[in-house]
């Protein structure tokens, strides 16, 4: 049975999710539909890309991921279908794809399907479901449109290594108010090796000097640093709300400093 | 596989949705359950009817729609099953059905199933799931109870055309804070034809003089009017929250005036 | 098709639910996944146990219930799998199981599965899904680990009968703000029999003297007492928000007094 995931900023109170699921059920009766989330903040392609990046690899190869965030097409932002890492992705080339993938996918198609409604359209329902249906039939991106070489580029701040410091920043805050930074365990290990270090944020006020293996390594209410299940350096408080308590927001800086 | 949709005001934090899904899974093991929404404001049958009206036509013929809003039966408001437009609907005749359908359905049955619990009942679980199971077996409303001629009537304000003005009102505000009015594209076209017009709301303060084809037709932050995917005149702000910014709420008036 | 339910405090905005559903879809392709709720307040095992207790019996025998609340294992709180009442449960022995079951289950296994990641783990995805997959294969708890005799005990206040009074308390407030107490219909009937009684809460301010059969037994806005579909004494206001209006919170006392 083909698996189709949905990621969107449609929320759950209106008919938008249902209209898309109804269309899928009508056009692809044996599809298994899985919601990634519909609670992306309206138009927030950065959060959406973080969630998709951390969700899609857990699904089986061949899964189709439908992305309904800021989907209105324009000359600059076309509707595209992408095959990458064994998965299909359908959405709008508004920068979100460049944030999800670490490299430019080899197969990118600019979707060329005529919409059969003269009302204002809802691309996820009127275009993307048809594209998904087509992909399931051909098991490829064939016949969907012309090849495209690149993606519309939106770049996140990457962590910078400078003068014995990794200068990173907060990219996401989750529902527990754990603070996720853009510092990967790979960058951290290559740079820090086995040297002593401190993690600093909010000027001098807070410092963490070790990496924990789990939240329970510190007492409830104490702050800690872990590499989360997605591989990013995460600042948390055991059973507490780190973002509020430490006063950290998206884009705030988090630095790793070597102590010598 | 039979498809059953759920629309309710149960929210998602309690066990109500799960109890109904568990009952469906127990009684109809091959059912595909699709949530329309469970985030209807408690007892708000007007919003619920708007969401159902815009959701159900996207599902395949034969889909069963279970409506769990204000379901307690009384002498005036009986539990009913309806077959209309190729779809089955199960709920309470509290006015919601009269709001979902533009005409009185030909097949309305007053449900006559005895509940086998002496605890306070939860009709969606204790009655409606059994009815759905029965409909799936007979592919009809047979044996569910007696025919009923009409529906309990609840009427929304319809737009009125008077002295060169369409006097409409706000019927729904979606999660993006787009403002949906009761003015359909049909009424608008018949009345306006190709004459110049202006859309007015909140006394004189705001005016829109054209219908856009998409949100992107205006700059981010600018207001616009479109016919949404459901066919209603919608006031929006490109990537902005129209309801808050324009100060419009449900039931506020929105007029279309011919300029001559 | 095996049914797997999910109950968690992960919320719906992040990738946590999707990561688990993706893992299930990859490892158990024919699984039917049903969300109980993901809106448990972080770490709130008491609410979680109330929701699970009232949800699981509606599912078919053999259903696997995955519990993702406060899952981090420690020496005191191990990962366990339980077979009870025809259902399988997988989670962390943090007290939640002792709250869900009225008696100690006969089959409790301490899970002994090595995790194959050196990143900080997400037990629901990395351990519980594997355990579910194993249970589906063997239709038992065989090979999962060693037997365990008891559960980590967390006790809720039980209602106390003293001097002609049932002294109960509020255990849960639902999305309608209905107030659920720990007084079961069984305790109530055994104690009250057919004698006149009054239900008192918030010192002397409010009194209810009868048990209603449905919310509609009183006028909208009036308070009432019912035995809810879960069998607990519930204080409600017909179409109103009882908890706010009556000023009752979780743990507040609710007494039933015999009038003689």
Shape of chain A: elongated
Overall tally of domains of chain A: 2
Individual helix count of chain A: 6
CATH fold call of the largest domain in chain A: Rossmann fold
End-to-end Cα distance of chain A: 57 Å
- Report helical residue fraction of chain A: 10-25%
Radius of gyration of chain A, rounded?
A: 21 Å
Structural class of chain A: alpha+beta
Q: Can you walk through the features of this model?
A:
Chain A has 260 residues and is an alpha+beta fold. Chain A folds into 2 domains: 3-147, Rossmann fold (3-Layer(aba) Sandwich), CATH 3.40.50.10790; 160-258, Bacterial fluorinating enzyme like (Elongation Factor Tu (Ef-tu), domain 3). Chain A has 6 helices and 15 strands. Chain A has helices at 16-27, 45-55, 96-100, 123-138, 185-192, 242-246, and strands at residues 3-8, 32-37, 64-68, 79-84, 87-92, 107-111, 145-147, 160-162, 165-173, 179-184, 197-201, 206-208, 223-227, 232-237, 253-258. In chain A, strands 8, 9, 10, 11, 12, 13, 14 and 15 form an 8-stranded antiparallel sheet that branches. In chain A, strands 2-1-3-5-4-6-7 form a 7-stranded mixed sheet. In chain A, a hairpin with a 2-residue loop joins β8 (160-162) and β9 (165-173). In chain A, α1 runs parallel beside α4. The longest helix of chain A has 16 residues, at 123-138. The termini of chain A are far apart. The model of chain A has no long low-confidence stretch (mean pLDDT 93). At the A-C interface, β2 and α2 of A face α1 of C.
């Amino acid at each position: 049975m083909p698996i189709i995931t949905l990621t969107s900023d449609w929320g759950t109170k209106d008919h938008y999710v249902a209209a898309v699921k109804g269309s899928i059920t009508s056009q692809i009766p044996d599809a298994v539909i899985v919601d990634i989330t519909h609670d992306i903040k309206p138009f927030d392609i950065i959060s959406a890309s973080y969630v998709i990046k951390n969700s899609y690899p857990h699904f089986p190869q061949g899964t189709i991921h439908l992305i309904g965030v800021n989907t209105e097409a324009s000359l600059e932002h076309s509707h595209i279908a992408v095959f990458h890492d064994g998965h299909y992705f359908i959405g709008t080339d508004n920068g979100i794809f460049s944030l999800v993938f670490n490299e430019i996918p080899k197969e990118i198609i600019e979707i060329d399907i005529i919409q059969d409604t003269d009302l204002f359209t809802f691309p996820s329902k009127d275009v993307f479901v048809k594209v998904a249906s087509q992909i399931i039939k051909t098991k490829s991106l064939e016949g969907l449109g012309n090849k495209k070489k690149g993606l519309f580029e939106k770049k996140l701040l990457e962590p910078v290594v400078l003068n014995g410091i990794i200068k990173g920043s907060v990219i996401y805050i989750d529902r527990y108010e754990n603070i996720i930074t853009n510092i990967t365990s790979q960058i951290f290990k290559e740079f820090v090796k086995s040297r002593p270090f401190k993690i600093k944020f909010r000027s001098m006020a807070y410092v963490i000097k070790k990496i924990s293996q789990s939240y329970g390594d510190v007492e409830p209410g104490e702050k800690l640093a872990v590499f989360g299940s997605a591989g990013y350096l995460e600042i948390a408080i055991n059973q507490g709300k780190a973002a509020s308590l430490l006063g950290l927001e998206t884009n705030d800086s988090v630095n790793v400093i070597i102590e010598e």
